[in-house]
Specification:
14 helices, about 40% helix, about 400 residues
């Protein structure tokens, strides 16, 4: 299941402080199976598998993307080096084609050399002005946002995040895209800690949303040739509105932090997970894939319909718009797999119109509306929050 219709429901339910990641029990199409529900055989002493972070880490383990430090720990609160991140991103997004020209500070016998060549070819790492890569530097949160925008090709939603702490000038466009696409959240006081090192657990939570399938890991010793990483969102993946291009006017390296660096190759292992080949399914197969989402959406629609008398004027119009989109999603259940991208593509106008209606309401009216919406059946409301990707970060 994916968190979809981010604009529509953000416009309606912008009140919760966190972004929820869908559980890993997603219904999936053939060829895009979600990570196995079974507990992974590899266990880390410092990872609680019942938490959002823990589930993400073990999803990456099952996909062959990470294997920890070799001492029974993962180090979720530790930083991740730029070299280690390249390896993880290559595996998650399926990048394999290698560049022929290496950065000046990367030696051929460095463990990360082949992964850096692949990252360079993919274009999400460009290096510093002096031709260096500085692979042992820890990746900062804003640098990670820049890389994520390039590999996930996020849409610019035309929204502006209000961030109350420092973000480098070059990085704001990337941080804003990541936040408004609900891939990372602002923290208390609407802070982001953009210039701080990003923690391994935090990176796992984001990257796990893009994992396509469970695969048997094999250690990669050299880069191989392929068509590169894909842009199609896998079933069971995570949020973020995807487009065919992304801004890259500044390097992710412009504000690198040399402190607290790591030199160990302990973050990841394994070969690329799956490919991006679409398989044509029958209407019956699509309906089966979408069954669980349709059942839950139907329940959500009923709850909204039964509470229509709480809403007046523009509020009622917004609720009717949501119900209308749900009806269309249900009607299309036999046409395609219900996903973030498919819903965005088919109902862009409804999403934009609803956001406009909400944004033009006076502040006190929006506040009252959010209070009314919060009174909906808790289970149904939590489903809507997860399914539609709600955040109050914008």
């Amino acid at each position: 299941m994916k968190r979809i219709l981010s604009l529509l429901i953000t416009a309606v339910f912008v009140f919760t402080s966190g972004v929820t990641v869908f559980a890993d029990d997603s219904t999936t199409a053939a060829g895009t199976a979600a990570a196995s529900a079974a507990s992974p055989t590899l266990k880390f002493a410092d990872v609680d598998e019942t938490t959002e972070e823990g589930k993400a880490i073990y999803k990456l383990v099952e996909a062959g993307v990470v294997n920890g430090n070799g001492d029974g720990t993962f180090g979720p609160k530790s930083g991740l080096t730029r070299a280690e991140l390249c390896k993880m991103v290559n595996l998650v997004f399926g990048y394999k084609e290698a560049d022929t020209v290496q950065f000046t500070d990367v030696k051929s016998d460095d463990w990360f050399a082949p992964y850096v060549l692949v990252a360079k070819k993919a274009g999400y790492i460009t290096g510093y002005d002096d031709g260096t890569f500085r692979g042992n530097n820890n990746i900062t949160r804003e640098e990670f946002c820049a890389i994520l925008c390039r590999v996930a090709n996020l849409y610019d939603l035309g929204l502006k995040a209000i961030i109350n702490d420092k973000v480098s000038d070059w990085a704001y466009v990337y941080v804003n895209k990541v936040v408004t696409n609900s891939l990372m959240s602002l923290e208390d006081g609407k802070t982001f800690r953009a210039t701080e090192n990003m923690k391994r657990g935090e990176i796992a939570v984001v990257l796990a949303r893009f994992v396509k399938a469970t695969t048997t890991a094999t250690t990669t010793t050299q880069a191989t040739v392929s068509t590169g990483g894909g842009t199609r969102r896998p079933s069971g993946g995570g949020g973020g509105l995807s487009s065919s291009g992304s801004s890259s006017s500044k390097d992710d390296e412009e504000s690198s932090d040399d402190s607290n660096n790591s030199t160990s190759d302990d973050s990841s292992t394994g070969d690329s997970a799956g490919d991006d080949t679409e398989q044509e399914l029958t209407p019956k197969e699509y309906e089966e894939i979408n069954k669980d989402i349709i059942e839950r959406l139907t329940k959500a629609k009923t709850a909204l319909s039964n509470n229509k008398n709480k809403f007046r004027g523009t509020e009622r119009t917004i609720v009717n718009n949501i119900i209308s989109v749900i009806d269309k999603i249900i009607a299309d259940a036999g046409k395609y797999e219900i996903s973030y991208d498919s819903v965005l593509t088919n109902y862009t106008d409804e999403i934009a119109d609803t956001y406009t209606l909400y944004s033009e309401m006076p502040e006190i009216s929006r506040s009252n509306f959010k209070t009314k919406v919060a009174d909906i059946d808790e289970e149904t409301f939590e489903f809507l929050m997860e399914f539609f990707g709600i955040s109050d970060d914008i």
